[in-house]
Amino acid sequence: MTSRNENCSSSDSDERSVLTPETGHLSPELEWYVVQSKPREEERALHFLKEKGFHTYLPRMEVVKVRDFKNVKTKKPLFPGYLFCRFDKDENLGHVRWTQGVKKLLPESVNPMSVDDKVVQAIHSLEQEDGVIRKQPLQQNDQVRIARGPMKDVLGVFDHWASDQGRVRVLLNFINYQASVELHHSLVEKVA
Questions:
Q1: Which structural domain range is residue 49 located in?
Q2: CATH number, domain containing residue 172
């Protein structure tokens, strides 16, 4: 194989600095490709591609699910069923295609097309320090809408971040009354 690198989401790696073991220089033959995993097997495909020495990237986002009347934060793939893999197509196409958890490379053809490095870098730049992509921060007085829950579709105004756990204070206008509520930021969407 041409390269032995770690997952792109770790803070010490950088997809622009893929080095060949032989020369220590950037390898222009290495390109990003979109890999479709088998259903719900993104992590498995990621594991086995990394085990084979490929540079991989599985962007993740934070979601909040309600379980037993509590908000539970979890991470899920930004693109369910898809991940990125960087390799030399001429040398490693078969190795990637026959990796456990991999369904196919996109587009499905004898000669899959690569993804521009700038696309992967743009996605990577959305990550926060912990490697997770979260919604863009809200600014005071932004118009917001509650996306889920008993107050779904109620409009309000973002006031401020209420805690380090991602809670926000939203001001809601009811008939002759302004109420403030605290919600997890994932329950609130900015209105354009």
A1: 30-130
A2: 2.30.30.30
End-to-end CA distance of the chain: 48
Please state the separation of Cα 29 from the chain's center in Å: 25
What CATH code is carried by the domain that includes residue 45? 3.30.70.940
DSSP state letter for 132: E
Amino acid at 155: L
Q: Give the pLDDT means over successive 10-residue stretches in the chain (192 positions).
A: 43 38 53 95 97 95 78 85 94 95 90 91 88 78 82 84 72 76 79 76
Tokens 């086995």 correspond to what residue?
A: 48
Q: Which residues pair with 155 in a beta bridge?
A: 145
Query: Which pTM was predicted?
Result: 0.61
36 located within any domain: yes
Q: Is residue 17 part of a domain?
A: no
